[in-house]
């Protein structure tokens, strides 16, 4: 069973990325997506190696954003691919059958295509406007999730869907009621003043207060 809470890392330098990822791990996140839009491949590689070690220490899953070759090279648990990244079936041939491949969607049609191509989870967004990612697809809002998740149910599609994009603590329960499997967040955890408390509250909302 996949974690219901994904932390999407942010930071413009290796040091900032490492600090933010360590903060997330140290305060209870167990699924890290390393999302580093660096111009220097050497920096991205060095960060990925360090994050792999950190995730091993914290028994956390490590997903690499965009870069299938890097994910394979460091033996990450998975990769996340967007609408303009490598096709999922091509990534599967490179990365193998046991690895986790996530895919970005902004519509039911995107989801259908990704599932046909063999993805393991969907990142459906954006829920609302966010400055964490540039070039956002059209904002979906709560009604967008309701509509898309209903279509998935009607078509017997059960691939886990994560909501992403501008999510705050108060958004979690309404989003979970639409039928999404979990959430992916970046700024909420990166910038909060009490990360351990926030992550525990997120988990309580995600797992229905089963978290002790
Ligand atoms: C869980 C999750 N969902 C969506 C995204 C967005 O990925 P992508 O469309 O490739 O955009 P970038 O993150 O590469 O800017 C994601 N990373 N994770
Ligand atoms: C990485 C990403 N992808 C999105 C999409 O809509 O595909 S929104 C997003 C940013 C998520 O960060 P925050 O929780 O700070 O808004
Ligand atoms: Mg991408």
In short:
This protein is α/β, with parallel strands linked by helices. It has one domain (5-207): TIM Barrel, CATH 3.20.20.70. It is built from nine helices and eight strands.
Low-confidence stretches: none
Mean pLDDT: 96
Q: What small ligands are held by the chains? A: the ligand Cc1ncc(COP(=O)(O)OP(=O)(O)O)c(N)n1, the ligand Cc1nc(C(=O)O)sc1CCOP(=O)(O)O, magnesium ion
Strand order of the largest sheet: 1-2-3-4-5-6-7-8
What is the molecular shape?
globular
User: Percentage of helical residues?
Assistant: 40-55%
The CATH top-level class label: Alpha Beta
- Write down the CATH topology: TIM Barrel
**Which CATH architecture would you pick?**
Alpha-Beta Barrel
Number of strands: 8
Q: Overview of this structure, please?
A:
Helix content is 42%, strand content 17%. It has 212 residues and is an alpha/beta fold. It has a single domain (5-207), classed as Aldolase class I (TIM Barrel, Alpha-Beta Barrel), CATH 3.20.20. It has an 8-stranded parallel barrel, surrounded by 5 helices. α1 packs parallel to α2. The structure holds ligand LCLJCK34, ligand 3NM and magnesium ion. The ligand Cc1nc(C(=O)O)sc1CCOP(=O)(O)O binds at residues 8, 104, 123, 125-126, 130, 132-133, 136-137, 164-167, 185-188. Pathway: Cofactor biosynthesis; thiamine diphosphate biosynthesis; thiamine phosphate from 4-amino-2-methyl-5-diphosphomethylpyrimidine and 4-methyl-5-(2-phosphoethyl)-thiazole: step 1/1. Residues 15-186 form the Thiamine phosphate synthase/TenI domain.
